[in-house]
Inverse folding.
């Protein structure tokens, strides 16, 4: 395990090729980690999903999480 960990730490981000950050390995940043996660999720949910018809256009007020950036 240690060898792998060392190797990973010295590796480069598979997304953008920058040096990996220990905090986000094997990626260089949370951004790239998110990108990879999205790819992964896209693959998982690659099943042809039709958009669910929004019959009840109800929008619970104030349920949206505010995005911090
Ligand atoms: Zn990156």
């Amino acid at each position: 395990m240690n060898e792998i960990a060392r190797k990973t730490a010295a590796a480069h981000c598979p997304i953008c090729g920058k040096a990996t950050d220990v905090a986000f390995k094997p990626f260089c940043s949370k951004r790239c980690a998110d990108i990879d996660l999205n790819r992964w999720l896209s693959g998982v949910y690659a099943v042809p999903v039709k958009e669910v018809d929004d019959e009840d256009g109800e929008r619970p007020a104030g349920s949206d999480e505010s995005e911090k950036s």
Notes: The chain is about 35% helix and 0% strand.
